[in-house]
UniProtKB/TrEMBL annotation:
This is Serine/threonine-protein kinase RIO2. It comes from Maudiozyma saulgeensis. Residues 66-307 form the RIO kinase domain. Residues 352-410 are annotated as: Disordered. Belongs to the protein kinase superfamily. RIO-type Ser/Thr kinase family. Its EC number is 2.7.11.1. It catalyses: L-threonyl-[protein] + ATP = O-phospho-L-threonyl-[protein] + ADP + H(+); L-seryl-[protein] + ATP = O-phospho-L-seryl-[protein] + ADP + H(+).
Amino acid sequence: MKLDISHMRYMTADDFKVLQAVEQGSKNHEIVPTTLIHQLSGMRSMSGTNRSISDLAKLKLISKVRNAKYDGYRLTYNGIDYLAFHSMLNRNTVYSIGGSIGVGKESDIYKVSDKNGVEKVMKIHRLGRTSFHTVRNNRDYLKKNSKNGVNWMVLSRLAANKEYQFITMLYAKGFKVPEPFDNSRHVIIMELIRGFPMRRLRKHKNLPELYNNLMKFIVKLGCSGLIHCDFNEFNIMIKDESEIDPNDPTDVGFVVIDFPQSISIQHKDAEYYFKRDVDCIRRFFKKKLKYEPKDDPSMLDTDGFGDGYRYAYPDFHRDIERTDNLDELVQASGYSKKHPGDRYLEDAMEDMRNTEEEQEDDQENDEEDGEDVTEDDEDDNDEYYYSESEEEDSEEEYDSQEEENERIIE
Ligand code: ADP
Ligand code: MG
């Protein structure tokens, strides 16, 4: 879904009040009646509310729905995009939107800039675009509500909040994740990592060290209480050489992204997901980088987190010893039987974790079936792109959108 905020400059303060009222009303109403919109908006005259409603509907930020009992309105994805962006503009965490960096299965990623021209990344969660194919068929509550889209919006918001909490906590604890800047509704703003997804890596100056540091990341995350659950070559950004700080011994040259589906080490399937994360990296190193790790006692260090990781790969029971309780602090899925978490989000995240897995399996089968996958074919199929030419395109788009945005704010 394309982010289109081009009409923002035409919107009045009243329009935003009314749009917010529709959002607020949606919490309890599938279709928000006009009278309630008026009440919640705090607008003085009904005719003013009606005018805004009609303008918002024209811009497709809300849509009119007739049901048996009454007519009313529903917030659209466009509408919630506008609200999120508007809040972040007001907080000065964003100033202008640039080009698209990637379209994921569950998100759209854009470059944005703040007032000082510092480039950042905006991740817009869009759950329900491709996933839920199993949930949709199997679960009654989604079957009942899947037509109206409300659930996807709520879930996208919950997923963004979760991811923001995860990276905020991890960043504060010194994990190599993007610095978080803001979160509004289904959107998060974070540091732009200048580099490329490990998927594109074919050569590296020290493969054993990179492998070792990735395994240490998984173990350290586990000892802090968390399992990433989608730890693979798409979600590890390899930093450009020029971005690596030679004076920082903790700069391992990569940054881990994409956390909404992470779980607690107390989750009932923790061991399974832990092993799957480890295996994803092992498989990638073996197939694409032709590197197979071996146990290396010379890598031993006593606390497990020093300079090396002595085993070829981690084992959940042997290596995970709790040193922190980040899972409890962020209420990660499965952290306690007494707190099963939000049921919708839980189901959605479970589906997300397993959707990734199915796709990996497909890919695996393709290759094992002897299909000759060339580098170019692969790139065509790439989930996310970052090619030179596309980057140039988006730069152009970026400039014109930046101008437009300046006008919005003036
Ligand atoms: P999804 O949940 O859809 O997989 P991700 O968070 O993995 O979303 O982001 C999708 C892609 O966008 C990544 O593979 C990466 O190429 C790019 N990306 C995401 N976050 C950043 C970031 N902070 N810096 C640079 N690129 C990023
Ligand atoms: Mg990803």
